[in-house]
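Trying the structure run again after the queue cleared.
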Amino acid sequence: MEFKDYFETTYASWLGKIIGIRLGAPIEGWEYKEILKTFGEINYYPVDYGVFAADDDSNGPLFFVKALEDDSDDPLLTKMSNTVLNYINDGHGFFWWGGDGISTEHTAYNNLKKGMIAPVSGSFSTNGEILSTQIGGQIFSDCWGYVSVGDPKLASYLSKSMASVTHDLDGIEGASFIASAISIAYSETEINVVIDKALEFVDKKSNYYSIVLEIKEFHNLYPNDYKKCLDYILQKHNYSVYGGVCPIISNTALMIMAMLYGESNFDKTMSILATAGWDTDCNLGNVGSIMGALVGLKGIDEKWINPINDLLLSSSSIGSLNIDTITNTAFEFCKLGYKLKEKAIPYEYNSFLDSDYKNFVFYFPYSTQSFKTIGNRYSETSLKVEKNKLKVIVNNGYKDNYGYIYQKTYYKPSEIYDSRYEPSFSPTIYPNETIFFSLENPENISFEACIYVKDDKGFIYNSDYLFVENNIDLIYKIDKSINIVSEYGIKIKYNLRITRSYFYISNVKVKKGYDYNIDFKNQYLEDWGLDFVEKSRITISQLVNVYGNIKIIDSKLVLNKAMVTFSDYKSSISNIEVDYEYTDDVNFLTCFSVKGNNVYQAIKITKDNVSYIIKKNSVFKEIYLGKISTNQIKINSRFTLNINVKYGNIVVSSDNRVWFKVNYNNLICDNGCCAIINNIEDELSIYNIGLKAKNGGKR
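Done. Tokens:
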């Protein structure tokens, strides 16, 4: 499969998944009669979400696939088991934490923490048949269809392997069916063919195989009335028949029904399935993925696509990865797919692979890279993608008025619809990084433009205005003093009244190389309100709380047996400096090149000693570096740990006095975010964290 076609089909399939999740989320768990009574038949988004929060159905595919990035010699099942522990916060976010023995994923996560790996962690002999056959086995499996490059056998193998971390029996068969169906749909045009071929990758003795055949046979008898089939499913295959919170067989019956009666039409299929009820976001996500691959971009109506605006939010333990776009993440799937097939990605996609820059490429008709406009009666603008450029349509611009085209780089609770799966963010763009915009003005309209940056308090910094004549490049280096870069973009000033015209943004990129401070007197609590079990949630700005208790007291971050992550995952750290409170019980890790909750390098500080730690999942190595001169040290005084990763210099000091200094040249300067881990229940207090990256890192 040519990369161009592979990329576009993957994008359409992933987009179909996101559409399905957004469509089904507000009616998740509803019954058919409730939906009809409230909304009628669903052929539109029932809720205008604006910015849609993170969802477990997209979290899973996006982060579970990172098992393929693990370059260790571990067996695949070990890598997949480790991935769950590496990207998921302990007890909150990512998926449903309904209780051990109630939620399949919660139970399996606890099994992994106890040292089990797949398939034991998810097996029915460990967790029981009901728990192991809930719907989660298939809802996260789309990614294995994406990375298989049209190879359903590979999709089946990978999906079954990953599903075995948390599920068993029909849970695994469902994963195989969904992943192989997506893979098959890349090269088919009729949904019934996709279903038949995908069924070849399901155990014929399984309940899953039987339910697919049963619904196919019903459709053959009554091909023109989906409601008759729905009534049959509601009577014979409702939740009470199978048990558990969300049984896979009941929902699969609805999915097969919708695909067969939807007759290879995206709108019709999604409408039937949304109206049918039960686990709507899961069902619509999987079916949207299959249908997106089947019909392609041209087969998906704009009414589903435009509200999404290419934006994808997540709730992993790595905050800077939780803000992304459908375009960029679709490319990540394709990059892994070509890696599996040992194929080279064509050179024209190099901008996606550039490790020195964060490039935002307007590749597909809806690849807006989540850019938006701020409009008013004196500056009416809109955006569309055309010719691989972002077209800024100026419907009406009054002289001496302003317009904004921008991308959000950090989200506060007030900017997101809800906190359903508890998103937490670190920024995607940082102080000291350099922003580049290329503009084209083919109609020679009279306007000036500058790059602007808005911080988390709403204060705007900007470059000088330049008159835009023909083509022009704008450049701006972000001020180091900014606490959080909340958004950036271009600000335009109309020199004349402009109507019915346009210009292009042909290129946007940001050169990596952050240099900034997280001063905890400038950080604040973020109140996310109630989650979907009515539990209040409060976080701290730009930090992700992986586990334990954290709070801000007297302008200090206080950790109690806790881990927090922060900074940019895709950059490589050069220097990190931590100001902390020295106590008798101090015992913490300053982690860098963090690639997961259990993959990092760290400098460990105790009252008396300094050591270097390398942790890669179950492999833990601690190297003693030396003793801190504790003579005359005052307890509760402010200390500074400075780690120059690039040159291996490690210094502990206070009040301009050095208490420890060593040069250790084996520190590895690699991409990854940073973290602080407090190993003990006694409180650790952090005043400030200074961070400096070298240019480059990971795409």
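Residues 434 and 477 are 4 Å apart (CA to CA). Worth checking whether this holds up in the mutant runs.
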